[in-house]
Design brief:
Radius of gyration: 19 Å
Number of helices: 11
Largest sheet: 7 strands, mixed
Distance between the termini: 46 Å
Low-confidence stretches: 285-289
Helix content: 25-40%
Shape: globular
Strand content: 5-15%
Mean pLDDT: 94
Order of helices and strands: EEEEEHEHHEHEHHEHEEHHEHH
Oligomer: single chain
Strand order of the largest sheet: 2-3-6-7-8-9-10
């Protein structure tokens, strides 16, 4: 872990603005796209870059911003990595978001978010808060392999359940689905059943597969060699250097996914999921199109 003084903290404009307090990650997920060389890391991925002045930058930015909107975090680096337990920069930023009356859309894999559930609840009562949780495999032993340094799926479902009890809307990222590893009907159905049980608002799944590019691909293949002998050769033979790596079972699994969502009133079109998360309630008591 090392500290930097950032020049800015917010990116984007319009309905949703992004914020990344950290760069890099310690979760150790074998498929992480953020490892890709295109993101131009100048330090080891696990050596977390901490924007120590993030709260001050956010305070200044929101103090002068006239139009309220959703502030999103977690797209490139999990805001609840292990260092957040000590640094609490994410919590400080959430406090500033609440203070200035903005909304929050938080994406994570970690149950550490539960330590901030009181604050997330306040934001949601005042404006809007959406908690996003990534779920990939329901098998605990497999989860230890592909996402070794973070809580398992069952614990993440418990997080979703706790958010639901507070009335905080949740969205699940059902991605990535790794060909020949977790791309089974049994796995996808188990995850979907839990999403239905805890009442998630939406599920984002572009395709049953993953993406691989330079930097990410090499790390993923090294993990395959370690944990799934001979599977790398199958990937190379099947996909070559393709960026989009779809499961051979994708069509069947996507049909199950869409039917389950339709039958249970869950938003599943990615554009509509993003639209819901980006929609800032100008009037908290105003009925959203997604509540009709």
């Amino acid at each position: 872990m090392h500290f930097t003084e950032a020049k800015g903290i917010l990116k984007g404009s319009g309905k949703e603005i992004g914020m990344n307090i950290y760069r890099g990650c310690t979760h150790g997920c074998i498929y992480c796209d953020s490892r890709s060389l295109c993101y131009q890391f100048t330090h080891p991925f696990e050596d977390i870059e901490v924007k120590k002045n993030a709260p001050e930058l956010l305070e200044k930015a929101l103090s002068s911003k006239r139009n309220k909107c959703m502030i999103a975090t977690g797209s490139m680096s999990d805001p609840y990595m292990h260092c957040e337990k000590e640094l609490r920069l994410t919590r400080r930023c959430l406090e500033i978001i609440y203070k200035h009356g903005f909304g929050a859309a938080v994406q994570t894999k970690s149950d550490l978010i539960l330590e901030d559930i009181d604050l997330l609840d306040k934001i949601n009562r005042d404006t809007k808060c959406v908690v996003q949780m990534t779920l990939t495999t329901y098998d605990d032993e497999l989860c230890k392999i592909i996402e070794p340094n973070v809580c398992n799926t069952k614990r993440r479902v418990e997080v979703l359940e706790e958010m639901q009890k507070r009335g905080i809307p949740t969205v699940v990222w059902l991605t990535p689905v790794l060909p020949f590893i977790n791309d089974t009907e049994e796995n996808i159905t188990a995850i979907l059943n839990e999403c239905v049980r805890v009442g998630v608002k939406g599920i984002i799944c572009f395709d049953m597969g993953l993406t691989l590019r330079e930097g990410d691909r090499e790390y993923f293949y090294a993990a395959l060699d370690k944990h799934f002998p001979y599977l790398k050769q199958k990937y190379i033979a099947t996909y070559g250097n393709s960026y989009v790596v779809s499961s051979p079972n994708s069509k069947q699994l996507m049909q199950i996914f869409k039917k389950t969502c339709k039958d249970n009133g869950i938003i599943y079109d990615p554009d509509k999921c993003f639209e819901y998360m980006q929609e800032f309630p100008e009037n908290k008591n105003q009925i959203s199109i997604f509540d009709l």
